[in-house]
Fold this sequence. Notes:
The protein is mostly beta strands. The chain has a domain at 39-74 and 130-260: Sandwich (Immunoglobulin-like). 8% of the residues lie in helices and 38% in strands.
Amino acid sequence: MGRRLVVVVAATAAMLVLAGAAMAPGAGAGINPRLLPDLVTTKIGQHDLVVESSRGRLLLRLTNELADRGRGPLEIYPSAQSHNCDGTLNNPDRDAYQRIFLDSDGDGVFRRATDTDSQHFKFGCDRYNRHAGEWDIFDLARYKLWRLHSGKTVARTTKVAFCTIDLEHPFPQLPGSPHVGYYPQGGCDENSTLGVSVGWADEYYYGLPGQQLNITGLRGGRYCLVSKGDPDNLLRESNNSNNVRRTRIALHPAKHTVKRLSGRCTG
């Protein structure tokens, strides 16, 4: 009997420990599941595309919009000091952290006044953009262009930076989507909390730095324009498969024209 009592007590203690771990703030499971964002690249329209000349080059410029269709906001904040995350000593930077809110009341809907527990992950670099005079999250989007009939990539960008803010409200019907945009808190400076609220989107206009592909020397024809948010999956989100938007276009660089086409990017 004594040995049996010891086993029961030990098993009960183990169960209590496991229950406590599940209920601990930041566990991301049990009573406090994560309210993850879900970034999607929204549809590119005809008005989002333009061909222009710049310093002897022909550029295809595009407006790109990243929206949050998840259960929680995308929230980003910088480290207190620089750690040279961009590898450039003469340009200010900060480590970029993502804050993920936990569902404190278990209703599956983000409520800022209630869901205050959170987890924090370092994911990238918050870098100063001298051209725009603001702090941007580095490598939040990439673009490329490939020819439809051959599938050959003919132009691409490297890393595009965003100052993520609530600018458009394309999905106001989503649970937890605020009527008024919340981000940024403090502007786009080195101490700002940036992000995209549930149901909101950040639009990066085609006239801004990084929003172009070099199409100098390309022949006229049909191409696929590919826009991908969070290309290296650095951010924690509920679905990484919907970050890409592929758009069929008819491009005539010599005439400085581009036309959005219907249909999918197939051969």
